[in-house]
Amino acid sequence: MNSPHVVAVCGSLREGSYTRIALDHALDHADDIGATTDHIDLRALDLPVYDADGNDAGDATELRRRVREANSVLLGSPMYHGSFSAPLKNALDYCGFDEFENTTVGLLAVSGGSFTVTTLDHMRSVCRALNAWVIPHQAAIPKARTQFDDGEFSNTDIAERVETLGQRAVEYASIEPDPYTVESAENVGADD
Q1: What is the pTM of this model?
Q2: Under DSSP, is residue 158 helix (H, G, I), strand (E, B) or coil?
Q3: Distance CA 114, CA 142 (A)
């Protein structure tokens, strides 16, 4: 693969989002090492609360197209109540196997406190259910308000971890997929 395409989906709608800053940092690093990139800002898309009867509502077709074009997808979310954000879950509900199966996915979580692990675990579970290949390296940004200064990382260790996520998204963009998971075989939507 000459130039992998890395797409980031930001699960934060906040104007000064640390998640968005971190994803941009990962995308910048991916771009520096030869990838093309796209940052899907959910604030710019019209995605009503997902309803299976309205699978093509709003900008759902655009979202799916942009995710489907990716060789690697970076998902980023702030931690909300021990999990990931509703805007990211809603966006993922509009997507499915066509967008994620055998696609490399990197995970990034941001929290105001010191514990982001459950957010990463929940995102990983959703990706496994979609039969995506999730990069083992993940980026956690605890106590986010102390990690940035004027929109830039002030903590070089965390900045390096986020850069590594961008690098792995490029390096593993064409990895051979694993066999189907038990979770993906059971992931069928309700018909009623």
Answers
A1: 0.90
A2: helix
A3: 5
